[in-house]
Write a structure and sequence with these properties.
With 335 residues, this protein is an alpha/beta fold. The protein has helices spanning 37-44, 63-69, 86-100, 118-135, 176-184, 198-208, 216-220, 224-230, 236-241, 265-268, 325-334, and strands at 3-8, 54-58, 77-79, 105-110, 114-115, 138-143, 153-161, 164-172, 188-197, 247-252, 256-257, 277-284, 292-302, 308-313, 316-321. The protein folds into two domains: 3-257, Spore Coat Polysaccharide Biosynthesis Protein SpsA, Chain A (Alpha-Beta Complex), CATH 3.90.550; 262-334, no CATH class. The radius of gyration is 20 Å and the shape is globular.
Length: 335
Amino acid sequence: MSVWAAILAGGSGTRFWPLSTPERPKQLLPLAGDRPLLAQAVARLAGLVPPERIVVITGPFLVDQIAAVVPAVRDNIFAEPRAASTAPALAWAADWIARRDPAAQMLSLHADWAVGDDAKFRASAERALAVAAQHDVLVTVGVKPVRNETAYGYIVPGAPLGRGRKVKRFVEKPSAARAATLRKQGALWNTGLFAWGVQRFLAEAKASAGELRRAWPALAAGDVPGFFAAASPVAVDVAVLERTKRLAVIAGTFAWDDIGSWDALLRIRRRDAHGNVVVGRVTLGDDVRDSVLWAEDDDLTVLGAQGVIVVRAHGHTLVTSLGHADSLKAIVQRR
Protein backbone atom coordinates (compact mmCIF):
# COMPACT_ATOMS: atom_id res chain seq x y z
CA MET A 1 0.00 0.00 0.00
CA SER A 2 1.54 3.30 -1.08
CA VAL A 3 0.68 6.29 1.09
CA TRP A 4 0.44 9.87 -0.12
CA ALA A 5 -0.32 13.04 1.81
CA ALA A 6 -2.09 16.24 0.82
CA ILE A 7 -1.24 19.22 2.99
CA LEU A 8 -3.69 22.12 2.82
CA ALA A 9 -1.63 25.30 3.06
CA GLY A 10 -3.89 28.09 1.84
CA GLY A 11 -5.38 30.98 3.78
CA SER A 12 -4.15 34.44 4.67
CA GLY A 13 -3.87 34.05 8.44
CA THR A 14 -5.51 37.37 9.27
CA ARG A 15 -5.92 36.35 12.92
CA PHE A 16 -2.13 36.70 13.30
CA TRP A 17 -1.82 40.24 12.00
CA PRO A 18 0.50 42.13 12.06
CA LEU A 19 3.01 39.25 12.04
CA SER A 20 1.18 37.49 9.22
CA THR A 21 0.96 39.08 5.77
CA PRO A 22 -0.50 37.91 2.44
CA GLU A 23 3.05 37.03 1.37
CA ARG A 24 3.86 35.28 4.67
CA PRO A 25 0.65 33.90 6.18
CA LYS A 26 0.24 31.77 9.29
CA GLN A 27 1.48 28.49 7.82
CA LEU A 28 4.85 30.09 7.00
CA LEU A 29 5.37 31.50 10.51
CA PRO A 30 7.24 29.84 13.41
CA LEU A 31 4.26 30.07 15.74
CA ALA A 32 4.69 26.69 17.44
CA GLY A 33 8.49 26.63 17.64
CA ASP A 34 11.58 27.71 15.77
CA ARG A 35 10.41 26.47 12.35
CA PRO A 36 7.44 27.47 10.19
CA LEU A 37 4.28 25.46 10.79
CA LEU A 38 4.37 24.03 7.26
CA ALA A 39 7.96 22.84 7.68
CA GLN A 40 6.89 21.09 10.89
CA ALA A 41 3.95 19.48 9.08
CA VAL A 42 6.19 18.04 6.37
CA ALA A 43 8.79 16.84 8.88
CA ARG A 44 6.02 15.20 10.94
CA LEU A 45 5.39 12.79 8.06
CA ALA A 46 8.99 11.53 7.96
CA GLY A 47 9.10 7.74 7.84
CA LEU A 48 5.43 7.53 6.89
CA VAL A 49 5.19 9.47 3.62
CA PRO A 50 8.28 10.21 1.51
CA PRO A 51 8.68 13.79 0.23
CA GLU A 52 7.98 12.81 -3.37
CA ARG A 53 4.50 11.64 -2.33
CA ILE A 54 3.60 14.82 -0.41
CA VAL A 55 1.34 17.26 -2.25
CA VAL A 56 0.92 20.81 -0.97
CA ILE A 57 -2.18 22.77 -2.01
CA THR A 58 -1.88 26.53 -1.62
CA GLY A 59 -2.78 29.90 -3.08
CA PRO A 60 -1.39 31.21 -6.38
CA PHE A 61 0.94 33.75 -4.77
CA LEU A 62 2.57 31.42 -2.24
CA VAL A 63 4.21 28.75 -4.39
CA ASP A 64 7.70 30.27 -4.33
CA GLN A 65 7.57 31.02 -0.60
CA ILE A 66 6.47 27.48 0.17
CA ALA A 67 9.18 26.02 -2.06
CA ALA A 68 11.75 27.99 -0.07
CA VAL A 69 10.38 26.70 3.25
CA VAL A 70 9.99 23.03 2.20
CA PRO A 71 12.29 22.49 -0.81
CA ALA A 72 11.97 18.71 -0.56
CA VAL A 73 8.41 18.91 -1.93
CA ARG A 74 8.90 21.74 -4.44
CA ASP A 75 7.84 19.56 -7.39
CA ASN A 76 4.43 18.87 -5.84
CA ILE A 77 3.31 22.36 -4.82
CA PHE A 78 0.07 23.28 -6.55
CA ALA A 79 -1.80 26.56 -6.59
CA GLU A 80 -5.59 26.58 -6.56
CA PRO A 81 -6.96 28.78 -9.37
CA ARG A 82 -9.27 30.24 -6.72
CA ALA A 83 -9.94 29.61 -3.05
CA ALA A 84 -12.94 27.26 -2.82
CA SER A 85 -12.53 25.62 0.60
CA THR A 86 -11.38 22.07 1.25
CA ALA A 87 -13.71 19.84 -0.78
CA PRO A 88 -12.57 21.03 -4.24
CA ALA A 89 -8.95 21.12 -3.09
CA LEU A 90 -9.00 17.54 -1.84
CA ALA A 91 -10.94 16.27 -4.85
CA TRP A 92 -8.26 17.81 -7.07
CA ALA A 93 -5.46 16.31 -4.97
CA ALA A 94 -7.10 12.86 -4.89
CA ASP A 95 -7.65 12.91 -8.65
CA TRP A 96 -4.05 13.97 -9.29
CA ILE A 97 -2.76 11.18 -7.04
CA ALA A 98 -5.13 8.58 -8.51
CA ARG A 99 -3.89 9.28 -12.03
CA ARG A 100 -0.37 8.38 -10.91
CA ASP A 101 -1.10 5.71 -8.32
CA PRO A 102 -4.64 4.32 -8.66
CA ALA A 103 -4.39 2.10 -5.56
CA ALA A 104 -2.96 4.82 -3.31
CA GLN A 105 -4.04 5.58 0.22
CA MET A 106 -4.09 9.26 1.12
CA LEU A 107 -3.76 11.36 4.25
CA SER A 108 -5.20 14.86 4.38
CA LEU A 109 -3.86 17.35 6.90
CA HIS A 110 -3.55 21.08 7.45
CA ALA A 111 -0.32 23.04 7.53
CA ASP A 112 -1.17 25.15 10.57
CA TRP A 113 -1.51 22.72 13.47
CA ALA A 114 0.46 22.38 16.67
CA VAL A 115 1.07 18.70 17.45
CA GLY A 116 2.54 17.62 20.77
CA ASP A 117 4.13 14.30 19.75
CA ASP A 118 5.07 13.55 16.15
CA ALA A 119 5.57 9.83 16.80
CA LYS A 120 2.06 9.50 18.24
CA PHE A 121 0.72 11.51 15.31
CA ARG A 122 2.28 9.06 12.84
CA ALA A 123 1.01 6.07 14.82
CA SER A 124 -2.52 7.49 14.77
CA ALA A 125 -2.25 8.21 11.04
CA GLU A 126 -1.11 4.64 10.38
CA ARG A 127 -4.05 3.29 12.36
CA ALA A 128 -6.46 5.50 10.40
CA LEU A 129 -4.97 4.28 7.12
CA ALA A 130 -5.33 0.67 8.25
CA VAL A 131 -9.00 1.14 9.14
CA ALA A 132 -9.62 2.91 5.83
CA ALA A 133 -8.00 0.07 3.87
CA GLN A 134 -9.54 -2.80 5.83
CA HIS A 135 -13.12 -1.51 5.76
CA ASP A 136 -13.03 0.58 2.56
CA VAL A 137 -14.21 3.70 4.39
CA LEU A 138 -13.22 7.30 4.87
CA VAL A 139 -11.62 7.87 8.28
CA THR A 140 -11.45 11.00 10.38
CA VAL A 141 -9.12 11.27 13.36
CA GLY A 142 -10.43 12.83 16.54
CA VAL A 143 -8.65 13.63 19.78
CA LYS A 144 -9.91 13.74 23.34
CA PRO A 145 -10.92 17.31 24.27
CA VAL A 146 -8.98 18.95 27.08
CA ARG A 147 -11.34 21.91 27.57
CA ASN A 148 -14.87 23.00 26.71
CA GLU A 149 -13.82 24.54 23.41
CA THR A 150 -16.56 26.32 21.44
CA ALA A 151 -14.53 27.02 18.28
CA TYR A 152 -13.93 23.40 17.25
CA GLY A 153 -16.10 20.72 15.71
CA TYR A 154 -16.88 17.57 17.68
CA ILE A 155 -17.41 13.96 16.58
CA VAL A 156 -19.70 11.61 18.49
CA PRO A 157 -18.44 8.02 17.95
CA GLY A 158 -20.94 5.26 17.27
CA ALA A 159 -20.76 1.48 16.94
CA PRO A 160 -17.36 -0.28 16.78
CA LEU A 161 -15.82 -0.84 13.36
CA GLY A 162 -12.62 -2.84 13.67
CA ARG A 163 -9.99 -0.64 15.31
CA GLY A 164 -12.22 2.38 14.89
CA ARG A 165 -15.86 3.34 15.26
CA LYS A 166 -18.60 4.49 12.99
CA VAL A 167 -19.49 8.17 13.25
CA LYS A 168 -22.79 8.80 14.99
CA ARG A 169 -22.91 12.54 14.31
CA PHE A 170 -20.95 15.76 14.01
CA VAL A 171 -21.52 18.80 16.21
CA GLU A 172 -20.03 22.06 14.95
CA LYS A 173 -18.94 24.83 17.35
CA PRO A 174 -21.22 24.06 20.31
CA SER A 175 -21.92 26.35 23.24
CA ALA A 176 -19.70 25.92 26.30
CA ALA A 177 -22.45 24.00 28.07
CA ARG A 178 -22.99 21.71 25.09
CA ALA A 179 -19.23 21.19 24.77
CA ALA A 180 -19.08 20.09 28.41
CA THR A 181 -21.89 17.60 27.80
CA LEU A 182 -20.21 16.28 24.65
CA ARG A 183 -16.98 15.71 26.57
CA LYS A 184 -18.83 13.69 29.20
CA GLN A 185 -20.40 11.63 26.41
CA GLY A 186 -16.98 10.75 24.95
CA ALA A 187 -17.08 13.04 21.93
CA LEU A 188 -13.81 13.91 20.21
CA TRP A 189 -12.47 17.05 18.66
CA ASN A 190 -12.50 16.84 14.87
CA THR A 191 -8.85 17.50 14.04
CA GLY A 192 -9.19 17.52 10.26
CA LEU A 193 -6.73 14.64 9.85
CA PHE A 194 -8.32 12.26 7.34
CA ALA A 195 -7.34 8.95 5.74
CA TRP A 196 -8.84 7.15 2.76
CA GLY A 197 -8.17 5.33 -0.46
CA VAL A 198 -8.19 7.84 -3.29
CA GLN A 199 -10.70 5.84 -5.31
CA ARG A 200 -13.09 5.53 -2.35
CA PHE A 201 -12.83 9.25 -1.61
CA LEU A 202 -13.51 10.22 -5.21
CA ALA A 203 -16.48 7.84 -5.36
CA GLU A 204 -17.99 9.23 -2.15
CA ALA A 205 -17.36 12.81 -3.24
CA LYS A 206 -19.07 12.20 -6.58
CA ALA A 207 -22.04 10.58 -4.83
CA SER A 208 -22.37 13.08 -1.98
CA ALA A 209 -21.01 16.48 -2.97
CA GLY A 210 -23.72 18.14 -5.02
CA GLU A 211 -21.66 21.34 -4.86
CA LEU A 212 -19.11 19.68 -7.17
CA ARG A 213 -21.51 17.96 -9.55
CA ARG A 214 -21.12 20.45 -12.41
CA ALA A 215 -17.34 20.46 -11.98
CA TRP A 216 -16.48 16.77 -12.37
CA PRO A 217 -16.39 16.72 -16.19
CA ALA A 218 -13.74 19.44 -16.19
CA LEU A 219 -11.60 17.54 -13.68
CA ALA A 220 -11.95 14.34 -15.71
CA ALA A 221 -10.72 16.28 -18.74
CA GLY A 222 -7.72 17.64 -16.81
CA ASP A 223 -9.14 21.17 -16.87
CA VAL A 224 -8.24 22.32 -13.35
CA PRO A 225 -9.24 26.00 -13.84
CA GLY A 226 -12.55 24.83 -15.27
CA PHE A 227 -13.07 22.48 -12.32
CA PHE A 228 -12.55 25.24 -9.78
CA ALA A 229 -14.68 27.67 -11.77
CA ALA A 230 -17.61 25.24 -11.80
CA ALA A 231 -17.25 24.01 -8.20
CA SER A 232 -19.15 25.74 -5.41
CA PRO A 233 -16.93 26.52 -2.41
CA VAL A 234 -17.63 23.98 0.33
CA ALA A 235 -15.76 22.24 3.14
CA VAL A 236 -15.08 18.53 2.75
CA ASP A 237 -16.67 17.92 6.15
CA VAL A 238 -19.97 19.31 4.88
CA ALA A 239 -19.87 18.07 1.29
CA VAL A 240 -18.67 14.53 1.93
CA LEU A 241 -18.08 13.43 5.52
CA GLU A 242 -21.44 14.51 6.91
CA ARG A 243 -23.29 12.85 4.01
CA THR A 244 -21.47 9.60 3.30
CA LYS A 245 -22.46 6.30 4.91
CA ARG A 246 -18.90 5.01 4.64
CA LEU A 247 -17.25 6.91 7.47
CA ALA A 248 -15.31 5.92 10.57
CA VAL A 249 -13.46 7.71 13.34
CA ILE A 250 -10.45 6.74 15.39
CA ALA A 251 -9.22 8.42 18.55
CA GLY A 252 -5.75 9.87 18.07
CA THR A 253 -3.36 9.85 21.00
CA PHE A 254 -1.44 13.03 20.14
CA ALA A 255 -1.89 16.50 21.63
CA TRP A 256 -3.36 18.82 19.02
CA ASP A 257 -4.25 22.50 18.66
CA ASP A 258 -5.61 24.39 15.68
CA ILE A 259 -3.67 27.63 16.46
CA GLY A 260 -6.62 29.78 15.49
CA SER A 261 -5.54 33.01 17.18
CA TRP A 262 -2.83 34.72 19.21
CA ASP A 263 -4.48 33.37 22.36
CA ALA A 264 -3.49 29.84 21.32
CA LEU A 265 0.20 30.58 21.84
CA LEU A 266 -0.41 30.51 25.59
CA ARG A 267 -1.40 26.86 25.19
CA ILE A 268 1.30 25.68 22.81
CA ARG A 269 4.48 27.64 23.59
CA ARG A 270 6.65 27.56 26.68
CA ARG A 271 5.76 30.27 29.19
CA ASP A 272 8.08 32.18 31.49
CA ALA A 273 7.78 32.19 35.28
CA HIS A 274 4.93 34.71 35.11
CA GLY A 275 2.93 32.81 32.47
CA ASN A 276 4.01 34.94 29.51
CA VAL A 277 4.95 33.86 25.99
CA VAL A 278 7.82 36.11 24.92
CA VAL A 279 9.43 36.17 21.45
CA GLY A 280 11.99 38.68 20.20
CA ARG A 281 13.58 41.73 21.81
CA VAL A 282 11.07 42.25 24.60
CA THR A 283 11.64 43.94 27.96
CA LEU A 284 9.00 43.20 30.58
CA GLY A 285 8.16 44.58 33.95
CA ASP A 286 7.84 42.11 36.81
CA ASP A 287 4.10 42.86 36.90
CA VAL A 288 3.31 41.50 33.41
CA ARG A 289 1.34 38.27 33.63
CA ASP A 290 -0.29 35.70 31.31
CA SER A 291 0.36 37.64 28.12
CA VAL A 292 1.71 37.15 24.61
CA LEU A 293 4.54 39.59 23.71
CA TRP A 294 6.08 39.26 20.24
CA ALA A 295 8.62 41.67 18.72
CA GLU A 296 9.51 40.69 15.18
CA ASP A 297 11.70 43.58 14.06
CA ASP A 298 11.75 46.24 16.81
CA ASP A 299 12.28 46.52 20.54
CA LEU A 300 9.19 46.19 22.71
CA THR A 301 8.71 47.22 26.31
CA VAL A 302 5.60 46.29 28.32
CA LEU A 303 4.75 47.25 31.91
CA GLY A 304 1.79 46.70 34.21
CA ALA A 305 -0.24 44.42 31.94
CA GLN A 306 -2.09 41.17 32.43
CA GLY A 307 -3.89 38.99 29.91
CA VAL A 308 -2.88 41.04 26.87
CA ILE A 309 -1.41 40.49 23.44
CA VAL A 310 1.18 42.97 22.21
CA VAL A 311 2.77 42.35 18.81
CA ARG A 312 5.16 44.58 16.91
CA ALA A 313 5.89 43.52 13.32
CA HIS A 314 6.34 45.09 9.88
CA GLY A 315 5.91 48.60 11.17
CA HIS A 316 2.58 47.88 12.85
CA THR A 317 1.59 47.31 16.46
CA LEU A 318 -1.26 45.25 17.86
CA VAL A 319 -2.44 45.74 21.43
CA THR A 320 -5.48 43.80 22.61
CA SER A 321 -6.73 41.67 25.46
CA LEU A 322 -7.14 37.93 25.19
CA GLY A 323 -10.32 36.64 23.60
CA HIS A 324 -10.72 39.11 20.75
CA ALA A 325 -9.67 36.95 17.78
CA ASP A 326 -12.91 37.48 15.88
CA SER A 327 -12.72 41.24 16.32
CA LEU A 328 -9.14 41.28 15.07
CA LYS A 329 -10.05 39.40 11.91
CA ALA A 330 -12.87 41.82 11.15
CA ILE A 331 -10.65 44.87 11.71
CA VAL A 332 -7.84 43.53 9.51
CA GLN A 333 -10.28 42.76 6.70
CA ARG A 334 -11.39 46.41 6.76
CA ARG A 335 -7.86 47.77 6.46
